[in-house]
Amino acid sequence: MSDYVQMWKDLGMDLETHDALCQVLPTAFGDVYLSQENRPEAMGFWDFVVSEIHGIRPSELIEAQKNGRKVFGTFCVYVPDEVVIAADGIVTGLCGGSQFWVPGGEKVLPKSTCPLIKASVGARLDRTCPFFRIADMYVGETTCDGKKKAWEILGEDVPMYIMDIPQMKREKDIEKWAQEIAAFAAVVEEQTGNKITVEKLNDAIRIINEKRKAMARVFAATKGKNLPISGKDRLLMTQIAFFDDPARCAQMCNKLADELDERNAKGVRVFPAGTKRILLSGTPLAIPNWKLHHIIETSGAAVVCEEMCTGTRYFENLVEEDKTTLEDQYMALSRRYMKNNCACFTPNTGRIDDILRLAKEYEVDGVIDVNLKFCCLYDTEGYTVEKALKDAGIPVLGIETDYTDTDAEQLRTRIEAFVEMLG
User: Is residue 368 packed enough to be buried (19+ CB in 10 Å), middle (13-18) or exposed (0-12)?
Assistant: First the structure.
């Protein structure tokens, strides 16, 4: 990615430290991804994106900024991309998934903060990720206490807007979230200088709905007994979807889904018949966090679905289209986004329902419920998840981990034992 050095300099990045990251990533990606056999040809697109992860998409964003467009960096699946797109803005995900960025976050955050938050803060403050340098405004949300305090720190370094997510899902809470979306829309209009109209918002809703439909097709390909794609390849597609242009994302996901449908029709598989099927639930796995998928899929099992923000929560449920007033559109957006079942809500029976439903739809042999260390929300909810699965007769393994590799062999031992137990 040497062609992008000047761009990184212009962004004020720490090039020496950034070079260290660029040297590690290709090896890690090769070990996890390129070592796989019989991968779908369409995965070549995502392989290319990763090979140019800090170059090709950042350069597109910078070019758009030169043409007057604004870039909004987001950290959560509750922030409605549709609103930004309707004002001709661009959305890019900003969650950090690498241990490389954690020490930078620990300079200003307690070590007992979850690694996703520490990595996200470290990526910005240590100036080692172009996406964090490019965004004109960050959009935070109140899904956990750690994030709330992190926004205050990031807000000293970059313009920050925070959306207040209700903690319950009553009708008045859905109405409140619609009001939050309307308030966010006003900020987006101010930042972009563009007015959001009913027509533009309907177009944006359709764009994101098409992206969701395309991603759903890829996931649906692993509902049958034949497994035409690995879980980690599907995870990579989902992780990149947070950064990519939504229309291009839909196009490439549909291309991949077409190939998977052909593979299923011909019985082409990437795992032997009888491989144990795992549903992964819990905290999100931001790029380049591929550790757990890699361990599972080199321990005799396959991840067939993720009940995560980097999984079904990202694309399930469509926004109702063709509303005729902005007020009705904001309400339609609210109803869709409030169907996401994050552990920040109480009560959160909807997430239990989702896990049980997905376990049935994907015909899983077992569930691995993963919690990023120090995420007390998902850690606490793990009790309810495991109880519900055991009551339903579905084997479950609870795991706590972080971004380091120090627990890799311990995790492998536990996962191999779990998979053997399923047999």
Answer: buried
Which residues span the domain enclosing 184? 2-422
- Answer for the pair 181, 196: CB distance below 8 angstroms, yes or no: no
Helix (H) or strand (E) holding 366: strand 366-372
**65, two tokens:** 């900024």
d(CA 351, CA 60): 37
Is the pTM above the cut of 0.70?
A: yes
CB 170 within 8 A of CB 162: no
DSSP type of residue 33: I
Residues 6+ apart with CB under 8 A from 40: 228, 229, 233, 256, 259, 260, 263
Tokens 């090896």 sit on residue: 27
User: What is the SS3 assignment for 323?
Assistant: coil
How high is the mean pLDDT in each 10-residue block of the chain (423 residues)? 86 94 91 96 97 95 98 97 98 96 97 96 96 97 96 96 97 98 98 98 98 98 97 98 97 98 98 97 96 97 98 97 96 98 96 98 98 95 97 98 96 98 91
Question: Domains in the chain: how many in total?
Answer: 1
Q: Measured between alpha carbons, how far is 163 from 70 in angstroms, rounded to an integer?
A: 19
